[in-house]
Amino acid sequence: MPSLPPADSALGKLMATLPRPGRVEWIGLRPARGAAMREVEEAVAETGKGLSGDRYSGASGKRGITLIQAEHLPAIAALAGLDAVAPAALRRNVVVSGLPLIALKGRRFRLGEALLETTEPCDPCSLMEAALGPGGYNAMRGHGGWCARIVEGGRIRRGDALVPAGDAAV
């Protein structure tokens, strides 16, 4: 991942300024490859692994959890020619609202009780064609969200705040 500007630079200060905390709107787990996402009210993030009960738990620490921004769902739907898109169709674990996920690039943040760190963009895969119809893959490009590793485990519940770590005020 490219380095961020120095925190004390003008751009670094702008990039660290967020208007408010984010909020968990939806949580989903996929127990096995090819299985449907299962909506849950809470999930347990396991340090260095993933979400308990998700197919990626225990796999790559870089993709311990996937996040997508709620504000992008209407854009994805519009680009795919749909009225709406259900979060489960997009196969991401957590939908958050209220802050731009791109602002968390290269940063650690608290999501409920867990401490996470962004690792890489969560690019769409070819399965988006089946989920969203022809053009679904391209509708998701630039809107796929982020992967994060779990630095400290804990519970994540619907309604929990997403707050950059180390920030006194958001």
From TrEMBL:
Record's signal peptide: none
GO molecular function terms noted in the UniProt entry: catalytic activity; molybdenum ion binding; pyridoxal phosphate binding
Organism: Lysobacter enzymogenes
Residues in MOSC domain copies: 38-165
Highest taxon in the source lineage: Bacteria
One Pfam short name: MOSC
SUPFAM superfamilies with a match to the protein in the record: PK beta-barrel domain-like (SSF50800)
Taxonomic classification: Bacteria, Pseudomonadati, Pseudomonadota, Gammaproteobacteria, Lysobacterales
Gene3D superfamilies (alphabetical): PK beta-barrel domain-like
Ranges in a coiled coil: none
Record protein name field: MOSC domain-containing protein
